[in-house]
Amino acid sequence: MTLAFAGPLGLAVVGSRRALDLVWVAAAAAGVGLLVGGPSPPKLSGVLLGLLAGCFWAAYIFFSARVGREFAGGDGLALALVVAALVVLPFGAVSGGVTLVDLRFLALGLAVSVLSSMLPSSLELEALRHIPTHVFGVFMSLEPAVAALFGRIVLGERLAGRELGGIALVVAASAGISWFGRTPIAVTNAQTPVGR
User: For the whole model, what pTM was predicted?
Assistant: First the structure.
């Protein structure tokens, strides 16, 4: 999964305008590498699928930023979620069968969709309206660090020195790019709906 972060970090490299930005990207990449480094090498199929996921993740960030510029409020996100639901509906209907009409499963599905898709995507879309995509790409590298910390707090997992170093690098990169990578973002008419 962590190989998927090559997508956001690659987007950060492409979108960088200054040499200092590349320093933060390299620090985040090194931190992610420390978090996943281990004695056994990953399988080639896993590496390829992880990199493919990274390409989709980079595309998601790029197109989310575009949707945020083109649509007012949450209109673009609502349209995207409806289209995504229609795409996966046939597969869900085939695999779920009659359980799809069970009210308990429908309620659980609604809760999962709100918590895992609608709410995070709304927050990310709003963030992408205010920060450049390359900065957002580095921020995404915080996820493995946060996951490792939650593993320690919630599950009692012990963190090795290598993992603590990786977390420190990722946090430093995210803090650095947010502090030194500030650039004003032009506000378009689509971001401020008429009447507000």
Answer: 0.61
